[in-house]
Amino acid sequence: MEVIVGLTAFLASLLTLFSGFGLGTILTPVFGLFFPLNIAVALTGIVHLLNNVFKLSLLGKNASKKHLLSFGLPSVAGGLLGAWVLVRISEMPPLCTWQWGSHTFEVTVMKLCIAFLMILFALMEIVPALNRLEFGKGHLTAGGLLSGFFGGLSGHQGALRTAFLINTGLSKEAFIATGVTIACMVDLTRLPVYFTRFSSQDIAGQWRILLIATLCAFAGAYLGARFVRKITFAAVRWIAAGMIVAIAILLITGII
To answer: Which of 29, 77, 208, 209 is deepest in the core (most CB within 10 A)?
Structure first.
């Protein structure tokens, strides 16, 4: 497990520099192979936060205070709501169960919701019309609430945040720094909810796998920044999307 998660964190962090997918988009389903899905979201959130704090230490001074207020604060509110929804749907009984040999599989509301979001945000990275999705400056509050909500629910916040901030006139440095800062704000909002409601399933007890994933993510970001040009490889995006959709189908059927 440690090897698979560590390698995924390394490659995901490396590929995010040019593939379009975020660290959480790729790492969450891999954690989901070994942990209950709500715990997988929480564990990914910890790695996501630590990785962004590292970026924040380098880029945070360029963040736009105006957009941290107009978009970041609504994102925090949305993140809190999304985390609360995740807690509630994780407590719902299975919709149905089925058996294959001696194995019993459960289809739950939480698995269906997360699987749907995984497919949706994977499509947003490979379908041109969705990939170019942009919104006007007048929708920042609603955009912050929406992206924060999905961040709290499943960790998928980057794609919508980009779509709403891309036309705000921020410089490249300010755009990146503002996005990283807002991501940290949402993570710091949702993680306490996860810890207080999922503590019985011992999130903190997974410190070893969290340390491995975090260090591998740092290594991937460092290597990518030094040796990888920031370009888009269509094949990488399609392969990553295909893997995410495949895992989403396994979630829908209750196999994982």
So the answer is: 29
| Statement: the pTM of the whole predicted model exceeds 0.90 | no
Q: In percent, how much of the chain has pLDDT > 90? A: 22
From CA 149, how far away is CA 85, in angstroms rounded?
9
Strand blocks (E) in the chain: 96-100, 103-107
Structural domain span for residue 186: 2-252
Judge contact between 153 and 24, C-beta under 8 A.
no
Residue 22 is given by DSSP the state: -
In the chain, the number of structural domains is 1
Q: Residue 60 is encoded by which pair of tokens? A: 């945070």
Residue with token string 């975020």:
22
pLDDT (tens digit per residue) in 21-59: 677 777 888 888 888 888 888 888 888 888 888 878 877
User: Other C-beta atoms within 10 Å of 52: how many?
Assistant: 23
Numbers of helices and strands, H then E, in the chain:
12, 2
